[in-house]
Amino acid sequence: MSGDVVKIDKDDPSVAIVSINRPKNLNSITVDVLDGLIDAANEIAAAPDIRAVVLKGEGPYFSSGADFSLFAAAMSEQDTNKARVIGRKGADACNAWENLPQVTIAAIEGGVVGGGLAVAMACDWRVMGADAYAYVPEVAVGVNFGWGSLPRLTALVGPAKAKYMSIMCEKHGANDCQDWGLTDFVVENGGTLEKAMELAIRTSEFPRLPVQLIKRGVNTHAAALSRATAYADMEDLLLSLGDEESTAYRMKTIEKIQNKGE
Q1: Is the CA virtual torsion 28, 32, 35, 40 positive or negative?
Q2: Architecture of domain 2-208
Q3: Would you give the end-to-end CA distance of the chain in angstroms?
Q4: If you compute the radius of gyration of the chain from its CA atoms, what whole number of angstroms results?
Q5: Mean pLDDT for the stretch of residues 210-229
Q6: Residue spans per domain, the chain
Q7: pLDDT at residue 262 in the model
């Protein structure tokens, strides 16, 4: 599946464990990862024996967010329509996960950054390790927080905190995330998969139909206005990538990151 950058395992017959499998790159999200997440969601949606899904990152880190290759692909594509297709994959992946009929739980160790947080927010519940953090660095690289993230973040933490998280580019620890409503459970480091599996197995023991109907009902209500605010994400990204001030700031940020790596 997409070069094995996304894996599906089943330790329990009724629970699928999906892993973003780029641990050497802190599970940064590439086009292949997005394709893999979409493929995994489609496969799981068509599997009636699977009643719950756990999403995790391989290794000690959930995801460092969108790989710079995604921005490069969108910027280098001369055909605007093709560039929009590349950029839209993130929203497609998040929507595919949000629309899964099964209950989904993100097991977050280490960090959940940018696009990684976008995917985690498309899940029903989030479990974070005690030292894990959430971080939205998009403004620091001169782009908007897209992929349908703002409506989901606002629904979870409220308008003021959604703006603070998305604009101020600060890391937020697990306890703050729980206080704000971004995560649902905080456990010892290394224990997120166990807790997520506990929730998944408990969920799978209930009758499938009412569980899925309740999920659909809640999501329909919570996301009723999402399309009205997230439809322009792709255009906002392309606009930001072409903005002179945003581009200059992005280059400075990239230079700082590269210098730290030396």
Answers
A1: negative
A2: Alpha-Beta Complex (3.90)
A3: 34
A4: 18
A5: 90
A6: 2-208
A7: 44
